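Recall that a protein's primary structure is simply its ordered list of amino acids. Everything else, from secondary elements to tertiary packing, is in principle encoded there. The following example makes that idea concrete.
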Amino acid sequence: MQHHINNKMKTSCPQKSLLAELPSPPPDKTGWPWTKESKLLPPMMPNGQPWPRISIVTPSYNQGQFIEETIRSILLQNYPDTELIIIDGGSTDNTLQVIKKYEKWIAYWISEKDDGQSHALNKGLKKTTGYLIGWQNSDDYYGIDSFSQCALIAAQNSDASIFHGTSYFMDDKGMCHATLIKENFSIKENPEPLTRFQFSNQSMFFHRRIFDAGYFIDEHYNHAMDGEFMTRLLIAGYKFRFIPGMTGICRMHHEAKTAKRPYLGIIENVDICLKIIKSDKTSPHIRKWALVSLREALPPLFYSYKMGEFRKGLYSLVRFGGFRMLDVKFIVRYLVSFLGATFARSLYGVIDYFRKITGASH
């Protein structure tokens, strides 16, 4: 086990550029967050109050090729009161070299075997002291000026507890594509299914009151734990506030968990829906929402060819929602599922081929 505590490190000076103090970036790296930095901030906020502390937890494991960009995107916010906590699961690549390179600016870091990302997150979250708290994975990073934008909006919206912006998907070539954005997360006002709530921790911060109330990551989940966590917050009535200019980057690469076994996240989403449906504390309105969410989660499970899991989910959908939740497509998928994944792949491969040559839509 390796660990480091920096009790003296609280923040960089708001009137002093941190770019010149940090280690030089690799020669082939330019732009944000390598050779560019966020704007310098005045000593106090416009309301005359000190800038609130922002704590960031970064769970890490063998992401040495990416974590330096993550760290620099946090430090180069040039934010007056930043607390960076890194929880590493015992990396065997160059991760620790990178961490030690920046440990002067890291409040706390540890490297030891853990029970996965959710466990690492909780370890870090319980060490935070910030008024606003976020987590950033070791292969993702924040956009420029994100911290100051969040702090300013949080000061103006004391009734909100979750502040979120826009996150972008980045491919292996560094190109950004689709975005994750939802201006108003609200089951009551905007009751879209869980699968359409594009939760994104890459550009999201939480008020201290959430963790003081005992809300943490459910360690039973390691793929959809962020969705499960934020769904609990929605059900509990915590208010989300969208910040248009605040951004984050979600990196898509072949080593990412979602790329290796994407169906695991779908299976966990199904389990989340069922947990809500089965709870005797769930209101009729929320239960109805969870049923619709379960219904929407099942087709992706079928097209991931997890036939046994698909049928189990379908049985639960009928058990708790009745046959009215089904349509012809569900019945067809159910029958095909008994023919096995290999047959289904072949069948839908042929269907897709004919769609392409005939120009038919899905």
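The mean pLDDT is 88. Strands lie at 2-5, 54-60, 82-88, 108-111, 132-135, 141-142, 162-170, 176-180, 204-207, 240-251.
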